[in-house]
Amino acid sequence: MNRTLVVYAKELRDAVRDRRTLLMIVFVSIVTGPLSMLLMAQFVSSLDKKTEARKVRMVGEEFAPPLVNYLKRVDVEIEKAPADYEARVKEGSLDAVIVIRPDFYERFLAGDDSPVELVYDDSRAESQPSIAQAERLLRGFNRETGTLRLIARGVSPNLIETVKVEHVNTATARQKGAFLFFVIPLFAILAPILGSLSMSIDATAGERERGSLEPLLGNPVPAREIVLGKWLAAWTAGSTVALLTLASFVFAATLLTGKKLATLLQFGWPELAIFMAFVIPLAGATAAFLMLVATYGRSFREAQTYTSYFVSLVSFVPVAAMFAGLKDSTWQLAVPVLGQQMIFTRVLRGEAIAPLDWLLTAGVALLAAGLCVAAISTLMSRERIVFGRS
């Protein structure tokens, strides 16, 4: 065990000496994730402001006195749209424009339907609140006009409204925020990989390329103890970077302004502790797998190519799971990365995490790590792996 600790300390010292790589990893882990979250929060805040702003842009409002009167009664500001409103909508400077036809009032007085155009570009997410507001106001005017016409003819409006829908939304603000701030689970999964990537490659393919692996394995020390020390160092690096990343998210969460944003995202030290309980075993598994893949690389650059495929696959899993709409299921806990993604989302939603959830995900991750370490130890005893550099 002492020999394993010697290798462990050596690998950590080597990693600290490479200050440029170390600073880059720390900077990316601390800044990139929280910056993404703050930008997302700013985007959500801008959507809220658009939703709260009661304003519509219209063309030809002089042709629709009843509609204009209705909008004023419900405290909606009417702004005249420019002549080039279609071009403005396409370029994104206008969200939605209500266009009134010249024969609107004539058809309205005759009791006929009075078509209006709602011009918008629904490919822009930032336009959705204004579009929804315009549609809601037009539906309100339509409902009020229809009700008044029925009453004028002595018909009860209740006859055409056989079902009255009352919406009961059981989602809490925190549960809604879990979907909006998906970057936290994503970075919680990628951070340990980023932290252990360079060390995993340098400890295997890097030493192989420099020719320092042969004398190291030539010592009267079992290969498994050397591999174990290298793996523990990579595991420590990955876990440390993950801790720094999540701590920076906690700090970023305190910067969120506005009561609604603070309600949407509740990520403090208790949530960080739960995240780390699941991240640490995952960091061990990813570090071991990265070392296993890098062992086949004859050079540092070749190993980087191999490991980049693994990083791409891991980053794809959380995004694919989110957009595929997978429902939580116990079998997902037994799948590394997917299980952690499910747990992290549940933590952000404020749901309880059972001890069995941790035992299953941690057990699978550590089992995978053990198998990878055993495979690396076997490979390190082969001359083709140790001496082959071309």
TrEMBL record:
Q: Name one GO molecular function term.
A: ABC-type transporter activity
Keywords noted in UniProt: Membrane, Transmembrane, Transmembrane helix
Q: Can you quote a single GO CC term? A: plasma membrane
Which Pfam families does this chain map to?
ABC2_membrane_2
The species this protein belongs to is Usitatibacter rugosus
- Which residues, if any, are the signal sequence? none
Highest taxon of the lineage? Bacteria
The protein, known as: ABC transporter permease protein NatB
Entry's transmembrane regions: 21-44, 178-201, 232-252, 272-294, 306-326, 358-380
